[in-house]
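ZP: hey, is the adenosine monophosphate complex queued? I don't see it on the tracker
AM: it wasn't, my bad. submitting now with these inputs:
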Amino acid sequence: MNISVLNKIEEVKKTVKNWKKDNYTVGLVPTMGALHKGHASLIKKAKETCDRTVVSIFVNPVQFSPNEDYDKYPRTLQKDTQLCEELGVDIIFAPSVEEMYGAGNMLSNTALTFVCPPYNLIDCMCGKSRPGHFDGAATVVLKLFNIVSPDYAFFGQKDAQQLYIIKKMVKDFNLDIKIQPCPIVREDDGLALSSRNTYLSEQERQNALSVSQTLFKIRELYNQGITDTKILTDSAFTILNQNIELEYLEFRDFDSFEKVIAAKSNTLVAIAVKSGKTRLIDNIIL
Ligand code: AMP
């Protein structure tokens, strides 16, 4: 079957309904486009797991703050379509903002119903510097779930806080969808792939390499038996490039999302920085 690029919610619903009549399982990979090998790994996993695969490409305005990069976020639908076709994706769902949120609506919670994740999950890490981000992300994901009715949805561990919040939403809203986490895909030199890496100058990219190196150092020290997160943090900071602006480095239990004082198995070590003007996130799980 050739790939279809659909822009209308009703077209997607109709196609999925027909698939379900044939008892096909459906996998959804939600993205904002500018696809790279990280996205491709999610798509490959979806193809392995499900009979039919839908990739959504939507730069979701309600998860960006006014001062963020919504306008300049890379939009490369033609190239993305080619990659999805090569990977055997069945449908790309690429709606307009009006299709998703209704023409003329103010994109705020005075005009639209929003998902409100638990406060302790959004008042920390990326949620602190990006107020409203996770409400917006959870809202669009719930809408995509309702439009595509997937059996499985695939999310990268790269956005660990988002992954945790989506899993929680699925549980709290009793959704019949299996969330499949996928490991972080990195460049050969360790930099986690991100659509925002295209913003980096040569020098900023070079400096950003110290971000994954910091995390890898923490893993190395932990494997040597050091569990005190203060010692781990202090030692690792010697590696972070001086031109990198640190937003946070946090240790969280990836089961409960509670802060961790003594690192243990399944501890998420998450970092957010700025290299130049570009905000980057990365993490490892011990
Ligand atoms: P985005 O297009 O940035 O919203 O990302 C769409 C999905 O791809 C999310 O589930 C991300 O976590 C995932 N993703 C982004 N970068 C990577 C990466 N380097 N490795 C694995 N998954 C990723």
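AM: back. The mean pLDDT is 97.
ZP: great, adding it to the tracker
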